[in-house]
Design a protein that fits this description.
The protein is of the alpha/beta class and 434 residues long. It is 45% helix and 11% strand.
Length: 434
C-alpha cells in the first residue's frame, strides 16, 4: 500500500475515487493518471529444465475396466496457490478419501475411475496435454468423460461449464448437494435463483486442463468453479489466510464442489447406461445457428448444411433416448442384454468424437473440435463454431458483406466443415457409417 500511495501521488489526472481513498485510509492520496510518471519493473526468475510429474490413482472397474471416467486437477501453483490450484487439489484428495472408504466396504465401480494430478498447468497445460497426446488412441476409444476442477473455490456463486450432453446430469446432481451459503436449500435452488434459471457455460477457452481432452481428443468434459474473478489471482496473496478470511471461511463451498464432482463421477462410472442426453446439444447448436444467421444476414452465405445436420443430430438424440429407456426397463441380465447396453454406451461415448475434424482449425491444426474451441480474434461476436468465427474475422474487417466472393467462399467452406462434423456426431450416435 505504501508503494501504491507513492505511485498515485506522482500521477496527474482525476482524483482517486472515494472507495480507493477509504480503503487506503487517507483523505487524498493522489490521482489516477495519465502520467507523467514512468515506472521501471524488474523480474527475477530462474530458467532451468525440469521434469514434469503427473500423478495418477486408478480404481479399476469391475465390469467395464476398459472404460475410463477421469477426474483432474493441476498441482503446480504460481505462488502459495490456496485457490489456484490447491482448493481443487483438496477437493480431489477428499474424493479419493471417500472412494477409499467405499472400497473398504467392498465397493468397486462398474467402470474404471482415474484420479489425475497434473503438473505444469501454469506453463500452458503441459502435463495434461503431453499425457493426452501420448495416450490419444486409448483415450479416444475408452474415455467416457473428463471432469475438471482447477480453482474449486474463489468466492461465492456456482459456475459450472460442460459439453451439453452432460447438462441434465449436472442439474440432477446439484439437486442432491446442499447449498453452502443457504441453510436448508439445495445447490440447484440457489444456483438457478442467482441466474434466474439454469446457466451452464461452455468450454470454449484454453484456460485449464480440460482443453486437450475436449479440443484435441473429443472427450465429453465438465469444469467446475465456486466463485470467479478473485482479486488475488496469481499473486502472493493467494494464501490460506485469504481463503479462511474471504474465499470460504467455513470451507462449506469446498464441500459443495467436492460433492458435485464426486457424484458426477459416480454416476458416470456406475450407471449401466451412460447418463448422456444429446437433445440439449442439438438445441444449443440450433441456438448458435440463429445467432450466426443474424450475423450473416444479407449475405449469400447459406446455413442450410448446418441446419440439416442439426436436424439429423436431434432425430438421432431422440431415438437414442427412447432406446435407452427401453433398455433400462429391460431387466434381463444375460449376455445379449449386456451387449446391447455396451453398444448403446459406445455410441453415446463416441458421438462427441464426431465433432472433431482431422485437419483441425485453419492455422491452429492441434485444435480439432468444430463446435467449441479458441478463436483467433478475441473480439469475435461468436464464442462457438471456431472455424466459422475465424473465417468471418479474417474476411470482415469492414463487415461480413464487404469481403467479396472469395471471403464468402471461405466462410461457406467452414460452414460445410462444421456441418459435416455435426453429421458425423449424429451418425456415431445412430451407430451408422457415414
Amino acid at each position: 500500500m505504501t508503494s501504491a500511495e507513492t505511485i498515485l501521488k506522482s500521477l496527474e489526472g482525476a482524483e482517486m475515487p472515494y472507495e480507493w481513498r477509504k480503503s487506503m485510509r487517507c483523505s487524498s492520496c493522489g490521482r489516477v493518471g495519465p502520467g507523467p510518471t514512468m515506472l521501471n519493473f524488474t523480474y527475477e526468475g530462474e530458467r532451468k529444465m525440469a521434469t514434469v510429474h503427473n500423478v495418477f490413482a486408478v480404481i479399476r472397474g469391475s465390469e467395464e475396466p476398459d472404460r475410463f471416467v477421469l477426474l483432474g486437477n493441476h498441482r503446480d501453483a504460481w505462488t502459495y496457490g490456496a485457490v489456484d490450484p490447491n482448493s481443487g487439489t483438496a477437493a480431489l484428495l477428499d474424493i479419493a478419501r471417500r472412494y477409499a472408504l467405499l472400497m473398504r466396504l467392498g465397493w468397486s465401480p462398474r467402470r474404471t475411475i482415474i484420479l489425475c494430478s497434473w503438473d505444469a498447468e501454469e506453463f500452458g497445460m503441459i502435463g495434461s496435454t503431453e499425457w493426452v497426446e501420448q495416450n490419444l488412441v486409448n483415450l479416444g476409444s475408452k474415455s467416457v468423460a473428463y471432469l475438471n476442477v482447477d480453482c474449486a473455490v474463489q468466492g461465492p456463486g456456482f459456475f459450472p461449464s460442460a459439453t451439453p450432453q452432460l447438462d441434465n446430469l449436472l442439474i440432477e446432481i446439484t439437486k442432491m448437494v446442499n447449498d453452502p451459503d443457504s441453510e436448508g436449500m439445495a445447490l440447484y435452488e440457489r444456483w438457478t435463483a442467482a441466474n434466474r434459471g439454469i446457466r451452464i457455460q461452455r468450454l470454449n477457452g484454453v484456460d485449464s486442463d480440460f482443453a486437450p481432452f475436449l479440443h484435441h481428443a473429443g472427450v465429453p468434459s465438465v469444469d467446475l468453479y465456486y466463485g470467479r474473478d478473485f482479486p488475488v489471482y496469481h499473486t502472493a496473496f493467494d494464501s490460506y489466510n485469504w481463503m479462511v478470511n474471504f474465499g470460504d471461511p467455513f470451507f462449506q463451498r469446498h464441500v459443495a464442489v467436492t460433492g458435485v464432482w464426486g457424484l458426477l463421477a459416480l454416476r458416470l462410472a456406475e450407471d449401466p447406461i451412460l447418463p448422456f442426453n444429446y437433445l440439449p446439444y442439438a438445441a444449443e447448436l440450433q441456438d448458435y445457428t440463429h445467432i450466426l444467421s443474424d450475423l450473416l444476414e444479407g449475405s449469400s452465405i447459406s446455413l442450410h448444411p448446418i441446419t440439416a445436420a442439426i436436424q439429423e443430430l436431434a432425430a438421432a438424440a431422440k431415438e437414442t433416448l427412447e432406446e435407452a429407456k427401453k433398455l433400462k426397463e429391460d431387466e434381463a441380465t444375460d449376455e445379449h442384454a449386456a451387449l446391447k447396453r455396451r453398444i448403446l454406451n459406445d455410441r453415446l461415448m463416441f458421438a462427441e468424437r464426431g465433432f472433431l475434424d482431422a485437419e483441425g482449425l485453419q492455422g491452429r491444426p492441434w485444435f480439432k473440435h468444430m463446435v467449441y474451441g479458441p478463436r483467433n480474434d478475441g473480439e469475435s461476436e461468436l464464442d462457438f463454431f471456431p472455424g466459422i468465427a475465424n473465417a468471418i474475422s479474417r474476411s470482415s474487417s469492414g463487415g461480413v458483406n464487404s469481403g467479396g466472393g472469395e471471403h464468402n467462399a471461405a466462410i461457406q467452406h467452414e460452414i460445410w466443415r462444421t456441418a459435416r462434423a455435426i453429421q458425423r456426431a449424429a451418425h456415431a450416435l445412430k451407430g451408422e457409417l457415414t
